[in-house]
Write a structure and sequence with these properties.
- By secondary structure, this protein is mainly β.
- The chain has two helices and ten strands.
- The strands form three sheets. It has a five-stranded antiparallel β-sheet with strand order 4-9-8-7-6, with no helix packed on it.
- The radius of gyration is 20 Å and the shape is globular.
Length: 153
């Protein structure tokens, strides 16, 4: 009897190592499924006029890796200046869950603090870089403005 031996090589890519996670707003009316592929290796806080006020830690996901599964009718969108970025928030509790990024409109920035299985300790232990959204190439037209150097009381 002749036996044919077949060897299967299995390769793992970062796509196979990705993890589906659930992201929710504070009141729970918005639920989003996200596929995190880089295990939070590139987190940032943006210093643009919008993001500096909300202070969120942001992770990037591709458009196809984010799906609103509940509460699409509760999501509201805020845009300003160039109207390229879209900042989505819950109309009930006000929490911003994600935004369509100005720098790359094929990706979303997600508010990492909205991910359900992130602990408080993890949230404050993450290595986070600063994204210079204030000096983004599309905001160059605003760089000619000068701010007062004296403190106004």
């Amino acid at each position: 009897m002749k036996l044919d031996i077949v060897v299967l090589w299995i390769t793992f890519t970062t796509d196979r190592l990705s993890k589906m996670r659930k992201l929710t707003c504070h009141c729970g009316q918005i639920e989003i499924e996200i596929d995190i592929k880089d295990n939070f290796e590139d987190l940032y806080r943006c210093n643009c006029s919008m993001c500096i006020r909300k202070g969120a830690i942001t992770a990037i996901v591709n458009k196809e890796d984010l799906k609103v599964v509940k509460g699409m009718d509760k999501l509201k969108c805020y845009q300003f200046k160039t109207k390229v970025a879209k900042h989505y928030f819950c109309s009930n509790c006000g929490i911003q869950t994600h935004n369509l990024r100005r720098r790359d409109p094929n990706t979303y920035g997600i508010n990492v603090a909205c991910i359900n299985d992130i602990s408080t300790k993890e949230l404050f232990d993450f290595k986070v870089r600063i994204n210079d959204g204030r000096n983004h190439i599309m905001a160059v037209s605003y760089t000619h403005l000068t701010l007062p150097t004296k403190r106004i009381v």
